[in-house]
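Morning, I've got a small favour to ask if you have a moment. I've dropped the whole record in just underneath, so have a look.
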Amino acid sequence: MKAKYLKNNLNVYFIAGREETKRNSEIFSVLSSFRKDVTILEIATIEKQTFAEQLDKISEDISNLGNPEETVIVSRSYGSYLLLHFNLIKPELSLNQLFLNPMISSFKTKDGYFGIMPPRYKTLVEAISKERIKFNGVVELHVGEKDFHIDFGLVKLLEKSNKNLSVISYKNEGHTFERPLLEIIISNFIKRCSF
């Protein structure tokens, strides 16, 4: 599937989820079918850095891409978690952002231990609860209703405080979307950003 409507100057930046690389990411593969020069941030390359350094890397990458309004940022899972925090530190930027299966939760195991407790999770919850995350640009958040990495209450709060945020949920999907669905989501999003 080729996008005939993709502007020549539109930059594409992908913040992958953990364990995703250029070689194994369906999202990267789909994005590359639209644009050959997709910039990817693989979490493995920054996972030993502090959380602040990880956010600095995203900031540096985005500033190197040029005009933020001509950039499409796609993120998945932990990459989306980082992008949400980035929006807290750079609220003035007008960015076109596509969040796929974002990690917006923590959860406890049956034994009462936290299975996932990402860095600065309480900061994110507080920011969402107090409506401090504001999006500019075209922003979509796509979630599977069977995804245990998502606190749907937080997603509703985020949507309520952002009029230009579109939240789309998929009834029979979990934390990873299959390629045919990804092609539709990404194609439609890029079309919205190619005005």
In short: Helices lie at 26-34, 51-64, 78-89, 121-129, 152-160, 179-193.
